[in-house]
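wait is this the right file?? whatever heres the structure
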């Protein structure tokens, strides 16, 4: 079976194609297929129309040269691994502080790239990168090493450079880090300046310790919100990268934390997920097939991971906002054994977003929070809500089906929350006054609901004829 893996960043994309070893495939029947035999590797760089291509030897040389040069650049200590012309297909040369030359000596010949070599037999390919492009390439390699289901036997060791050989200053770090938007740069810098202790020398063990800094299949503590076949954001344990997420297997994450299954909580999170993805999905045309994903969401609505369910989703993740919506630990407390909810996300070919719990609802959900239940009070609030909405609803409806909403008000009749109950209510919500009424109070029509006080809930129906109906809430219909 042909398998593809893509590691994508704004200025660089690595695309690996290969096969699964049938002698080992049985061990991974319940997981993503393991790409254990590399057939082709492609490296796409911004500003160049043609990719760099090659086989296993080219790819291994590329990751060695990238890691070695990144360490050299941040430490100002020469690293022979980055310039080994005799035994490596790939090497780097520093042109200046913001320009870096990538040289491919053989195998990966690509039309469209210029060569300055005098070797007429097979001239090398030379590509000049800026620092941002370089560190996007570093982070793409980082994502590969974080993917336990792609070339698992391929590992890389980085040795720390002692302080007394380091000529770089803190000024260099301050210049390099902003350009290197990934945590890869910070971790490599930590190694370069001996901020991370060198690996302990231990007697050989029957099985390598996955947490060992010298044998782990991670170039550096990787961090990205870019697309990988299985992506999850979890906190890195190293001090040098404590403010960025680490890319890990979503299924592995779900095996280590509790799962949120309460229907009422899932319903509330369902809304939060929709409200995050819906406005961010701007590329709604051009899909040939539905893109289906499995999403991991924390209790506060933060998207902590996603996994492509179908092949099209894996290839088309760049047409979705998911890579940019993974939570940033700099803006919230790190994920630490928090319960995770799972959702099924579908980006349909007709531009409709579908969000639903991965396992469905075990029972009919209820509204979260305290409720106003006194019939006399709710009767008065029912009329007050009707009058407010009726007065604000102007214009001629263009929809042809009823728009159904749940609307909650506080004891003063002020709208505290609302949510669409059917798809047409999502599609035509701008033809109702609810967003404007809500925005006038909270400054956003997707603000979190007010759960700090008891609320009265109602079903509000906008009919194509212009009729408005407001009735006491009877619960969700499943």
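ok assuming it is, sequence goes like this
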């Amino acid at each position: 079976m042909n398998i593809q893996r893509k590691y994508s960043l704004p200025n660089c994309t690595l695309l690996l194609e290969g096969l699964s070893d049938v002698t080992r495939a049985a061990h991974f029947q319940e997981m993503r297929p393991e790409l254990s035999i590399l057939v082709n590797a492609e490296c796409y760089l911004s500003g160049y129309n043609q990719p760099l291509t090659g086989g296993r030897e080219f790819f291994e040389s590329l990751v060695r040269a990238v890691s070695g040069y990144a360490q050299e650049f941040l430490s100002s200590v020469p690293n022979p691994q980055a310039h080994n012309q005799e035994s490596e297909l790939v090497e780097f040369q520093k042109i200046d502080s913001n320009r870096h030359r990538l040289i491919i000596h053989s195998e990966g010949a690509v039309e469209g790239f210029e060569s300055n070599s005098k070797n007429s037999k097979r001239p090398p390919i030379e590509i000049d990168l800026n620092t941002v492009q370089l560190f996007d390439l570093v982070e793409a390699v980082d994502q590969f090493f974080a993917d336990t289901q792609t070339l698992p036997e391929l590992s890389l060791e980085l040795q720390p450079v002692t302080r007394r050989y380091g000529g770089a200053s803190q000024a260099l770090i301050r210049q390099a880090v902003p350009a290197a938007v990934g945590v890869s740069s910070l971790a490599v810098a930590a190694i370069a300046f001996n901020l991370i202790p060198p690996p302990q020398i231990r007697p050989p063990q029957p099985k390598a310790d996955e947490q060992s800094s010298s044998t782990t299949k991670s170039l550096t503590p990787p961090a990205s919100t870019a697309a990988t076949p299985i992506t999850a954001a979890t906190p890195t344990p190293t001090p040098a990268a404590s403010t960025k997420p680490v890319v890990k297997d979503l299924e592995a994450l779900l095996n280590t934390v509790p799962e949120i299954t309460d229907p009422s909580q899932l319903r509330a999170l369902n809304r939060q997920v929709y409200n995050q993805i819906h406005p961010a999905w701007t590329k709604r045309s051009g899909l040939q097939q539905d893109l289906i994903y499995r999403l991991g969401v924390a209790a506060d609505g933060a998207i902590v991971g996603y996994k492509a369910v179908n092949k099209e989703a894996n290839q088309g993740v760049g047409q979705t906002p998911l890579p940019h919506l993974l939570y940033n630990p700099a803006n919230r407390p790190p994920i630490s054994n928090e319960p995770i909810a799972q959702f099924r996300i579908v980006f349909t070919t007709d531009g409709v977003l579908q969000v639903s719990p991965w396992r469905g609802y075990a029972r009919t959900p209820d509204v979260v929070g305290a409720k106003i239940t006194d019939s006399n009070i709710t009767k008065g609030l029912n009329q007050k809500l009707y009058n407010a909405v009726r007065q604000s609803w102007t214009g001629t409806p263009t929809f042809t089906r009823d728009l159904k909403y749940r609307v909650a008000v506080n004891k003063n009749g002020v709208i505290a929350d609302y949510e669409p109950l059917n798809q047409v209510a999502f599609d035509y919500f701008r033809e109702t006054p609810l967003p404007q009424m809500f925005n006038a109070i909270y400054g956003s029509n997707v603000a979190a609901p007010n759960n700090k006080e008891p609320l009265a809930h109602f079903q509000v129906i906008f009919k194509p004829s212009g009729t408005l109906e407001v009735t006491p809430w009877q619960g969700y219909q499943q």
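The first helix runs from residue 56 to 75. so i think its the right one actually
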